[in-house]
Write a structure and sequence with these properties.
Blueprint (H helix, E strand, L loop, with lengths): L1 H11 L6 H29 L15 H12 L3 H9 L4 H6 L2 H4 L6 H35 L4 E4 L3 E4 L4 H27 L6 H19 L3 H6 L21 H28 L5
Antiparallel strand pairs: 1-2
Helix pairs in contact: 1-7, 2-7, 3-7, 4-7, 4-8, 4-9, 7-8, 7-11, 8-9, 8-11
Length: 277
């Protein structure tokens, strides 16, 4: 526990660890102000095709809706913020020349690696939690409560009583997906002695995978099921009606397998690495 506490303190004492919180702390309020000023136009554009056939009652532009809107708008950017710390966990120690000092403790390499990985996942969870809670708190303060409207692959309108549970489920699934991204950055962090390398490598992999999964090409469609980025939007299933538990379970298992695989590769590299500083 002492090693974990020390690593936790070390992580949250670095200025880089707060870039994600500062960025989200600026972006979320700005988007909220924009929605407060012109959110009605957004709702009108989303519901334009429904007005002819349905009568929408209640407050559609509410805290639940804007939280979901922000998650949809920023879910592709959150991974880049997480890599700033996840990619620095091992490479940062190597660059600072402190690994040999750390490994003189009674704890084994495997224990040190597990602690650093646990801190990485905890940090990732804190970023996602901060983002969702800030969005929800400001959203409820500025827009109040109401039905949860979601125009995804299917149109979903959930009652206000069900919205908090659905958003909680979405947040937990989003954390799970971001753990996979953090695991990849952690893997790259074990390969080099420069903290910038893992960050750029993870971003490059994410960009390439996003491009491959987004292009409507038959060859890429056949590759898509084997890319972990295909399943990062598993959190969106949380607001469908009914909840597609089968698809959620499949995506969770695949993302979990990727995370475990990334960690095992990291463990092998770190266990056999000749640490000179």
């Amino acid at each position: 526990m002492m090693i974990f506490a020390n690593e936790l303190l070390k992580t949250y004492s670095r200025w880089r660890s707060y870039i994600a919180f500062i960025a989200l702390g600026i972006i979320v309020p700005l988007v909220m102000v924009g929605l407060k000023l012109q959110g009605d136009k957004l709702v009108e554009s989303l519901t334009a095709g429904l007005a002819r056939d349905f009568l929408l009652l209640g407050n559609v532009l509410n805290g639940y809706f804007v939280t979901l809107f922000l998650m949809n708008a920023l879910w592709i950017h959150i991974p880049f913020l997480i890599t700033l710390v996840a990619g620095d966990q091992l490479a940062g120690e190597a660059a600072a020349g402190t690994f040999r000092l750390i490994l003189t403790r009674p704890a084994s390499r495997s224990s040190v690696l597990a602690v650093k990985y646990g801190v990485t996942l905890l940090y990732t969870s804190s970023v996602v939690a901060f983002f969702v809670l800030l969005s929800l708190a400001l959203g409820l303060l500025l827009f109040g409560t109401g039905v949860l409207f979601h125009a995804g692959q299917t149109l979903t309108i959930l009652p206000a009583s069900e919205a908090p549970f659905r958003l909680l489920l979405a947040a937990l699934l989003a954390m799970w997906g971001m753990w996979t991204v953090a695991s990849l950055a952690f893997l790259f962090s074990s390969l080099v002695d420069n903290a910038l390398g893992p960050i750029l490598a993870t971003m490059a992999v994410l960009i390439v995978c996003y491009v491959v999964t987004g292009l409507p090409v038959d060859l890429f469609r056949s590759i898509k099921p084997y890319l972990f980025t295909t399943y990062l939007n598993v959190w969106q299933y949380a607001v469908e009606q009914p909840v597609p538990w089968g698809q959620i379970t499949e995506a969770v298992l695949i993302l979990g397998a990727f995370s475990v695989g990334f960690y095992l590769v990291t463990w092998y590299i770190f266990s056999t690495k000749d640490i000179l500083s």
